[in-house]
Amino acid sequence: MRARSLLVGLVATAASALSLALPAAAEAAPPADADVTPYIVNGRNATQTYSFMVSLQRNGNHFCGGSLVKPDWVVTAAHCVRGTSAGQVQARIGTTNRTSGGTVARASRIVVHNSGDIALVKLTQPVQQTPIKVAADSGPDGTRTRIIGWGQTCPNRGGCGAPVNLQELDTSIVADSRCRGISGSTEICTNNPNNNSGACYGDSGGPQVKAVNGQWELIGATSRSGNGSSTCATGPSIYADVPAFRSWLQTYTGPLR
């Protein structure tokens, strides 16, 4: 269902990403009529340390998630990093605690796709953590996945703070028809288990992964609500389909494993 890499590859050259940094308002709540920018509701504390997990931070404060795909490159959501200089951003990589552990590296460049909700952050130096492999494809409806992130764990905007400990939730890919406004060729519709679990405010850019031969592979970057509600986890969520953007990513990162 989701053999999308060729489609995006054809437009990768035209999709010249801007070396922009994130918007000053990226950390603020979106307007009432904007799409929800997610964290994880009704997940659990991370059951392992994910070497590739990234907390993007400004002034030491987490504002978005990301995934280490090369020792010096991080994939995140475009709306996280459009409009601010790279010098304002640092990444904490490979820890379950957003305030300590892992490796901290400064950003040196930000590259934003011109249409998809996906971006790259280049680090000033390579880190020792093991990057995640980008999957060959995201998979068909029913594919079992996991979403990972820090942040608001209650469904109402501003109803609680972000957790210090990394959260995870096991979920699955569902039919595109369940997500409003989805671009089926480059985005993934992801289930909200029990109709009350899923992404919520602030986890944007963080990974959606699937297990392949006992190893995690990256398929998605958290984008927005799939039903437009300002209350989180009341419907599926939309993720940028990372494998669909492989050609574009490799324009900057070089070959991805």
TrEMBL record:
Superkingdom classification of source: Bacteria
InterPro entries xrefs: Peptidase_S1, Peptidase_S1_PA, Peptidase_S1_PA_chymotrypsin, Peptidase_S1A, Trypsin_dom, TRYPSIN_HIS
Domain annotation Peptidase S1: ranges: 40-254
GO term, biological process aspect, one: proteolysis
Pfam families given in the database record: Trypsin (PF00089)
GO MF, one annotated term: serine-type endopeptidase activity
Signal peptide: 1-28
UniProt entry keywords in alphabetical sequence: Disulfide bond, Signal
Family recorded in the similarity comment: Belongs to the peptidase S1 family.
Protein name in the entry: Trypsin
